[in-house]
Amino acid sequence: MALSFVKEMPKGAVAIDPTDRARTKFVAGVTEQIALSKDVNYTVERTRYVDGEKTTYQKPPRKWWRLVGNQIFIPVKYGNRVLELKGGSIAVTDKGGLTSTLEAIKAEGEKGAFDKAITKAAVRQPRK
Fold it and tell me: How many CA atoms lie within 13 A of 96 on its CB side?
C-alpha cells in the first residue's frame, strides 16, 4: 500500500477544537473531585514508565476544597491552575453541600460557562 501525501487539508475536515479539549479536561477533573467527595478512599490509576517498561499504580487525587472555620471553599481549577472567575474571584463557597456544589460546577463547565477562563489557563506559559 502506497501513501499519498497532500499539501492541504480538504475543506470541511474537522480538527479537535482546543476549547472542547480544555473543557473535557476540566470536566474530568471536577468528576474526580465529585468521586473523592463521595468516597475518601477514591484513587485513580496512574501510569509510569521505568526503564522503558510501563507500570501502573493507584494514587488518590489531591482535593481542591479547603475547610476554613465552618465554611468550605472550592477553588475552581484547570489542571493545577486556579481559574479566575467572575469579578476576579477564584473560589466558590459551599452552600448546599460539597458534592452538590461540585456537581453544579461540573454542570456549568459542561455548558461552557468557564470556557474563557479555561482557555486562558490552558495556554502554556514559557519557562523563566
Answer: 7
pLDDT digits (tens, 9 = 90+) for 31-58: 999 999 999 999 999 999 989 899 999 9
Q: State whether residue 22 is helix, strand or coil.
A: helix
69-72: long-range contacts (C-beta < 8 A, 24 or more apart)?
Answer: 72/98, 72/101
How far is residue 105's CA from residue 95's CA, in Å, rounded to a whole number?
A: 12
Count the neighbouring beta carbons within 10 Å of the beta carbon of residue 84. 14
Kindly report the number of other CB atoms within 10 A of residue 3's CB atom: 4
Instruction: Give residue limits of the domains in the chain.
Output: 18-122
C-alpha cell at 103: 456537581
Residue 61 burial by Cβ neighbours in a 10 Å radius (0-12, 13-18, 19+): middle
**pTM for this model (two decimals):** 0.79
Please count the residues of the chain. 128
> In which region does residue 72 sit, left (phi positive, over 0), alpha (psi from -120 to 50) or beta (all else)?
beta
